[in-house]
Amino acid sequence: MAVEAEKSGSDGKVWRFCKMPFWQGRNGSSSSSSSLTSMHNNAHQQNQSHQSVEHMSLQSSTTVSSVAKSFLPTRRRLRLDPPNKLFFPYEPGKQVRSAIGIKNTCKSHVAFKFQTTAPKSCYMRPPGGILAPGESLIATVFKFVEPPENNEKPIDQKSKVKFKIMSLKVKGEMDYVPELFDEQKDQVAVEQILRVIFLDPERPTPALEKLKRQLAEAEAALEARKKPPEDTGPRIVGEGLVIDEWKERRERYLARQQVEGVDSV
Questions:
Q1: What are the GO cellular component annotations (predicted)?
Q2: Domain carrying residue 199
């Protein structure tokens, strides 16, 4: 009996010894499977968080780039002279003139257009046009000067009138029409907003001398455009007889031949 008890006890110990690893193996497998599941979930969450962080960083970088682009200066298509002002001689109650040089600095044709906050008292000549690459012109701006108010000094009067020059790239040579700027609003750029500066016409200054020189150049260019083009075609002589250079040379040659023939006879 003692042997059997001991044997049974030993069997129980062996059973317990064998039993414990079995249950531990099941618990270990379940715990390992749960740990794998949790690791997979953690990896999935980490992947989602990483993707969300990448998406947020992409959005932030896009936002930063757009904000940075908004702060960058606009690339100019035209060069203005003066760059941001219009000088007018101060003559109250009269219409005075200013001038501004406009040059196309692009490699393509550029259309420009003037706008003003006072279209009833100001106008431009020309109000718009198309410049070829490297081409330039001098535009003339006309303005009526209001008399001073509230006993202000004439030269201290500040004008609220402003002018704006807009530009638009166009494809090659074409006729200028203001509707170009309405049809392609997304491509229109504001080149500059010009402020009005009054000058004392009795006081010589470099700005006043430059203004007089630009106005003289603008008038000369206008007179040159008004002249009719030179006629390089056939000339009309007498009563509608058309004689070109070849016929004229031929007639002179025949006349010379006749004279030489008469002399020989």
A1: endoplasmic reticulum membrane; plasma membrane
A2: 78-222
